[in-house]
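hey so i finally got around to running both of the ones u sent me last week. sorry it took forever, my laptop kept dying halfway thru and i had to restart like 3 times lol. anyway pasting them below in the order u listed, first the sequence line then the structure token line for each. didnt double check formatting much so if smth looks off just lmk and ill redo it

first one:
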Amino acid sequence: MGLLKNKIAIITGGGRGIGKAIAHQYCKEGATVIIAEFNEQNGKKTADLISGHFFKADISDEESVASLFKYVKTKFSRLDILVNNAGVLQDNTLKKMESNQFDSVINVNLRGTYLCGRAAADIMIQQGSGVILNAASVVAHNGNFGQTNYVASKTGVVGMTKVWARELGKDGIRVNAIAPGFIQTDM
């Protein structure tokens, strides 16, 4: 057991890619990991692989997020770490992007991060500690051709992270973001 022994961690989008790698490492370090994933097949497969827990969740839906955090609070009585990792892409140039493409990416990447962060903060404030780690992207700083929606969502995540760090630090909650570049995953 390692640095995360006895810690309870939710990883959104933990069924594949970066989230799956984080889940695997957290488990190796001793954490109890809850994979919050929309894709049931990927989520269950990863949870089984790491001896973690799976919860089917649509993080863009307020009721689904409430159910996820109620489950964690009831089953584990606490939450030490939230990794807001879930994200989607629907790339297109500005002139070709449909409103539903824009909305879909904003709803998952930005609204989902907000909903999960707010729910985690409720639990973490009560216990006086916790960590929220948000997945941003290097494109939030550099932009990227054909990604108006994705860049807007990840730039928003950077901004929310800064605000939450200021608001929640006094309650013993650390809030940070990572901004990976291009990673060899299916996304």
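and the second one:
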Amino acid sequence: MKLILLGAPGAGKGTQAEIVSRKLSIPTISTGNILREAIKNGTETGLKAKGFMDKGELVPDEVVVAMVKERLAEPDCQHGYILDGFPRTVAQAEALDQIAHIDVALNIDTPDDIIIDRLSGRRVCAECGGTYHTSLLKEDKCPACGGAVYQRDDDKPETVTNRLAVYQEKTAPLIDYYQKKGILSTADCRGTIEENYRAVKAALEAKKQ
């Protein structure tokens, strides 16, 4: 299965991608990881991307698409893959159509108030990098290593609200794009990780029928 995960930041895409990847034995492909790998390996597109990043500029769509194309040609993608974080815009989706046939675009649908609570309650350990929610912390220390925990700037409520606004403007139109193509499926992911996976599984199975 060739799958795209759509959803706002904090909707739980990464968590569900990890579970689906394990269950279906297909890789999860994130553009952030592709970018880092391509630069580390010194590929032609990686060097192009590095040139833009070194100048503090956004990597152009054509370079990102070229890197995705390189990654999808690798052997582990033969039987399917999950795209997480790409495409982000309709222009990227149109470019992706030229290099891949996607089976399902799965929308991880989570209400904004739940996303704001999830992200603004997230704390990260300064020592080991562990991530926790304040509801599970008894004190401002990491349960795993005892290190101090802190809130990332992009998890502060006002920043989260802004990130959601950007998502609605730039990325939400993809839902309509894939709806018109007839490959959109939606999973209501307002529950626990296990409940959300059951919703994801049902949404994927509905598209197989």
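quick thing i noticed on the 2nd:
The longest helix spans residues 193-208.
anyway thats it, ttyl
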